[in-house]
Amino acid sequence: MRFGILGAVQVWDDQGTPVSVGGPRVRALLALLLLNAGRVVPSESLIDGLYGDEPPAGAGNALQSQVSRLRRALKGIAEVESSAAGYRLAADPQDVDAHRFQRLADEASGRGAAERAALLDEALGLWRGPALADVPEARGQAVRFEEARVTALEDRAAARLELGGHRELVAPLRELAEAHPLRERPRALLMRALYGSGRQGEALELYERTRRILADELGADPSTELSDVHLAILRGEPEPAAGPEPGPEPVRSRVPAQFTSFVGRDDDLARVGSLLRDARLVTLTGPGGAGKTRLAIEAGARAGGTFVDFAAVSSGEGQTALARTVMGALGLREAGVLPSGERLGPVERLETALGDRPALLILDNCEHVIGSAAPLARRLLAACPGLRVLATSREALGITGEALWPVRQLAVPDARATLTEAAAAPAVRLFADRASAASPGFRLTAADLEDVIGICEALDGQPLAIELAAARLRALTVKEVADRLGDRFRLLSRGDRTQSPRHRTLRAVVEWSWDLLGPEEQRLARRLSVFTGGFTARAAREVCGGDEDLLLDLADRSLVQRTPSGRYRMLQTIYAYCAEQLEEAGEERELRRAHAEYFLTFAREADPHLRSAEQVAWLERLDADQENLHAALRWALDADTALALRLVGVLASYWWLRGIRSEGSEAGLRLLRTFGDAPPPEFDEEYVVSVALVSLGNQEVPELPSLVARGEDLLNRIDRPLRQPYLLAMWALAAGPPKDSDDVDRILSERDPQFTGHPWNQALVEMGAGYLYLFRGRPDLTEPYLDRALAGFRAVGERWGMTQTLDALSTTAEQAGDAPRALALLDEALVLVHELGSLADTADILQRRGDVLTTLGRLDEARASHLSARDLARRVGAQNTLVAVHCGLGDLSRLEDDLDTATALYERALAECPPRWYASEIRARGLLGLAHVALARNDRPTARTHAARAAEAVRDHPLGRLLSQEAETLLTTLTDPV
């Protein structure tokens, strides 16, 4: 043996001579390494073990200093190895008395009585005194070893009883029983030793004394083992052969019965059960109303736990008050003394009562007494090896070895979910279950589904809030509940009268958490309500003035949630409460402005990256803050129109690339009407951007022609590089091609001052020239420009430019009659547009692809492509694409001789066609389709009318040449004699 901790810490050299190790810290460090001999011990664990809750400044350096001293002391005996993870004592665990003791004790199990006794003699002979006697920092481990030593003494006594050694065991067993007065197994063994020695009366008297001690101290009856020995003695049965004795009986389970079904937490329940098997302390964290208590009760009931509610304990109380609450839950009496006459306090009483007995304590509502609950849990876990703790709190207890399980909101289904899918979602299941209890006639139907999903989503899937909302169905309809959630604190103000006050209403739940915050935390929390849809630590610092440590404190206390991406979010109910506090503090206007200006700066930072290979990454960053960007714009529209105009100008490229133009269109129209015909000179470009957005939107705008004319005039006067280079692409679609588009060189020269230097700008110029030549019907000149544009966009890695150029090249191929090449180019564009994530552009490419597949006669594939385009176009409100899909599907129906369906689709296209110049081609397609249907029905006058209208509609469209030729050919056919 070279190392000893079963007594004072000791080291021996090869000759068995004790070696001096050093002072208390070095011995404590050695003990911690010996407990894990041969394994790496993390530096954090060593610091925690050496210094406890108050490590010195520079604890890492202090640890290294102690390691250096230990290495000098162990030179030539064992190495202390270091690694990035921590430190390791390079020693065989069997060279440590504690590990050898445990191995011998384990080997004894299951052996015959004689061999068992011999092995346990050897194991117990390793003890030199109390384990870790000179290392107070390892008290918890010392208690564990002491428990193992007493168990070994009991096992050895049981083996010797089996061998007939009753008389010689009476004295040591009496000593053991007196040393552990509440431990029942030594007393059962002593009763058997007395009985086997012919001292039946003493054995029965010992039982009575034991029964009284257990009743006085624990309020408990003797264990089955003790009672069985007592009964056997009374019956005069032979002293039974002693095999391996059972361990101590577990503490009786006491968990309150529940009145409602447990819904939606099956996965959580399984995971918490798994954690309880692997860890001695498990803490369920989460905001108020998340369902922590119910989950703890369900998990604790399965594991045989005892429920302890700290809700009624005042926040200023210490460990003594909490210990009394635990004693009450366990059914322990307040008074009582040990046979020695020593009176125990509540904490010591718990340590004595629990001892080594298997037990699970469910400590509920720890957050307001966490300063006392954490030390109490730590002390009990250290002193009671068989104890496990399941705690609930809005923040972690912060104890080494604590396993955390954040209790998240119940899953809410997507708004597009079917009735069957939604009914299976946990949040909806809970609402339906509680609603049927409140209103027995309630059944989830398709008519209520949208409102039910909306309620669950607005309440963040929080169980308590959902239950409160469902309870309102006693007096309100589902729709009325959904409509009144804007004032959720008034609506959800009636709960279970038997619950604690802080769980009766939604406001009380949030106020409980709010009141636990300090002034600095409250200030930051209320200011964070200015954000919508989440925020970064940087945004919180810049807008609200809170450092990240304070933000992390709020996350630890479940006031905000940290997402896997590193962003933060606030539940809507907490957001609503904090927003009230912000308004009451008189800070709202100041914070709203700071919020809007921060996101203007952020959008400006992002904009140049949208024309680079980093395009997708920055689009995702803008997506993450889309709600903040739009909230900033909405506030600025009411409070600062100049700021709003700046936001519209810089956000236009983001909206353009993502295909979410309705937000910009509505904001742009409002600003145009605010500024009238005379925008401030410094906002000329932003004014033109607003006109473009309005033109690309779907709303009816009577003054649009005059707005476009004003925008064209302003754009032509700009003789500097554009702040928003995407503007020219947007303007080309908004205003249409120049009236004199034949003079390509002049048009390009006029635009040249607006572009300088950047390769993306040059690629856009090349693409614009390609489109102008495409409008002129000159494929020989179109393709070289488009090829150079494609190469330029590829060089900078910009996907939108590549997609648009490929689309133009496919149109060129289609006009040349090369449909296979057109399809290949569109397929390449489709891959890029998927990477870009623009649903509007994806829908457009899919629609174009459907038309080409129709030309190739691949009708089933064409229909699938059109239907996919239709679904996407509906999702994003891409009206022009949707109308084109109607025409494409109409063509397919006509080719399959389903003339009625074709007619309906063409007429729908004409009815929904937006009044914009770029829609005239689609209008012509619908009219030509109706002409072909009329001709198939031999209605030549109607066919001629539709064909003439189609020719007129497409006359001025730059890409309408093929449709124009088709219409003229059809008219010629219809005017020829039959």
Automatic annotation (TrEMBL):
Name the chain's protein: BTAD domain-containing putative transcriptional regulator
| SMART domains for this protein | BTAD (SM01043), TPR (SM00028), Trans_reg_C (SM00862)
Organism listed in the record: Actinocorallia aurantiaca
Q: Which InterPro entries match?
A: BTAD, HTH_77, OmpR/PhoB-type_DNA-bd, P-loop_NTPase, Sig_transdc_resp-reg_C-effctor, TPR-like_helical_dom_sf, TPR_rpt, WH-like_DNA-bd_sf
UniProt entry keywords in alphabetical sequence: DNA-binding
Identify the PROSITE patterns for this entry: OMPR_PHOB (PS51755)
Q: PANTHER family of this UniProt entry?
A: HTH-TYPE TRANSCRIPTIONAL REGULATOR RV0890C-RELATED, REGULATOR-RELATED
Residue ranges of the DNA-binding region?
Answer: 1-91
Please state every residue range assigned to the domain named OmpR/PhoB-type. 1-91
Q: Sorted alphabetically, which SUPFAM superfamilies does this protein's record hold?
A: C-terminal effector domain of the bipartite response regulators, P-loop containing nucleoside triphosphate hydrolases, TPR-like
